[in-house]
Protein 1
Amino acid sequence: MRKGHCAERVRLVNGARDQFKPTRVHVAKRRPIKPKKYGKPCAARMLDTGIGNKMRLSSKCFAVLGLAYVPPWTVNAGFVVGDTHTLIIDTGANASAAATIHGYAEAVRPTNNILVISTEQHLDHVGGNAYFRDLGIDVYGHARIARTDGELADSIDEYNACIPDKARRDRHEGAIPLVNTRIANPNQAIVADTELELGRLSVQIILTPGHTPTNLSVFVPDDSVLFCGDCIVSDYLPNLEGGTEKDWQVWLHSLDRIRALGPNVLVPGHGRVVQGQEVVLEIQRVQQIVERAIGVGFAPTKLDQTALMPS
Ligand SMILES: [Zn+2]
C-alpha cells in the first residue's frame, strides 16, 4: 500500500465539496493492477462482489467480518445456529468485538444457549474469550491454548507501535481498543476431532494444525460451510512465522483434510468469504505458499525473498 494514497483521496473529495461540485470516480476507466511480485494481491480478487462480504451465509451459518486488528489485518468470526444452541466461532481481538459478535448471535435466535469455540491460540482469535467466560459461557478450544496477560500487554505495545501519528502513539492510544480485555483460555479442552450437537444440527470440530499447533476448523455438513480460522486466509499472505518447516508439513496435511471435506463456502480467519471454485483456488494458493516456504526454508514474510514466491 502506498503511503499517503488515502490522504490524497480525502483532500480531493474535500476540495470538491468546498466548491459544491460532485466528485465522480470513473471505476470503469481504472486500469487493473497486475500483480508483478509475490505480495501484491490480485485486484480482481479484492473487488469481489459475491459472497465475500455477506454476513448470512445460509439459514444456520453467519460470518462476522472485518473486526479491528493490527493493520493490514482485520479478523473474522462467525456463528452457527441450531435449534437449542448457537456456537460462536472466535471472539475477535478484544472485549468490544466479543460484545458485537454476541449481539448478532443473540439477535438471530435469542432463546438459544450460547457456546464459544476458539480456532487457535493467537490473540486476534481469543481476545474476546474473557467477555464470554464472565457471562458463564463455555469456551471450547485446543487443550494447548495457554495465553497470559503478559502476552496481551506485549500485544498492546505492538498495536500501539503501528499508530502513524506520534502524538497518539505517545498517549498510548493503542491500549484503547483493548479496554476491559484480559486473557481467558478455553475451559472446555479439545484434543481430537469432535462433534457438537446444537439442536437438530451437528457440527464437526476438525483439528487443522500447522499455522499453530492449536488450530481447528468448524464444519457444518448440512450447509457445506467451513470456518477454518487461519489455516486459510483469503488474499493475505498466510502467517508462517510462528512455525518451522515441520509445522508447515503438518499444515499441508490440514489443507488436504479441508480439500477432502469439499466445503462449498469457506470462512477464513482473515479476508473475505469464498465460495465454490474459489474455495479450491484459495486452498491451492495457500498450499503453494506453504510448499514454497518448505522449499526455501523460511516464511514468505521474511527478507526480500518474497519475490521467489508464487502469487
Ligand atoms: Zn489470525
Protein 2
Amino acid sequence: MKTLARYALCFAASVLVYAPGMVRGQIINPYRYAAPSAGYLINEDFEGTGYDNSNENGWVEVSGNVLEDQTTYKAKGSQALELSISGGASGEVYATFTSGTTMYAFARFYFVTHNSAAAMGIIALRNSTTTMAALLVDGTEALPTTQVKIFANGSAGSASATRLSTATWYYAWIKFVSGGECYVAVSASSTRPTADGGGNVYLTKTAASGSVDRIRLAHQGTSISGTTIIDNVLVSSAEIGNNPEP
Ligand SMILES: [Ca+2]
Ligand SMILES: [Ca+2]
C-alpha cells in the first residue's frame, strides 16, 4: 500500500474509534456497545439499579407498584421485577422492541400472592392498541391454584388442564405469528412443553393478522390484588428453546 493511502486509512480509523469522553487512541471495548445477547430484541434480567437497559427504548411503568430492584425473589442473578397492586388499582409495565409479525417471548414468573377475580396477563405481545397474543391466568379458580388460558384474536381459549400455584417459579414461553397458530407454554421445569397436562401448560390459538412491538408483563386489572415476580425476560424473532440464558 502506498504511504499516502496508508496515512489516509489510519486517519479514517482514528476518527471512527473516537467518541466524546474518550482519550484519543483509547480502544473501544467491543462489548460495551454490543447487543446484550445475539438474537434477542429484549434480554432483561433486572440486575443492577433500575433495569438492565438492554433494549434501546427501555421500560415504561404505567401503573401499580413496580419494583425493578426487588431482591427477595429472583430466578436469575440477584434482582427481579415485582409488580403488586391492591385496593382496586391496576398494574402495568411494558417495553417496546422492533416491530415484527412473528415473535417469541420467554420469562420466569412467580406468584407471591394472587387474589384474582379477573383475568391477568402474565406475558402479552402487543402493539400500541391491541393484545395480539397473551398468556393469561384466569380468575375463576379457587386459590391457590389458577387456570391458564391463551388469548389471541380478541378472546381467550379454553383453560389448561394444569393449574398454577403460588410460591413456584415457572418458565413461560409464548409464540405470536400474524394470522397463524400461536402457543403459550408453561412448566415448572426448564423444558418447553409441547403437550398440555401432567403439570405442564401447552395451549394454541389462531391470531389475528398484525404485528407486535411491545411486551407487557404481569398486567393486572382492577379486580385483582396480588404480588407477581418476573425475571429473565427474552424477546426474539426466532423460537426460544429450553432454559435459555440460564
Ligand atoms: Ca434477575
Ligand atoms: Ca434492578
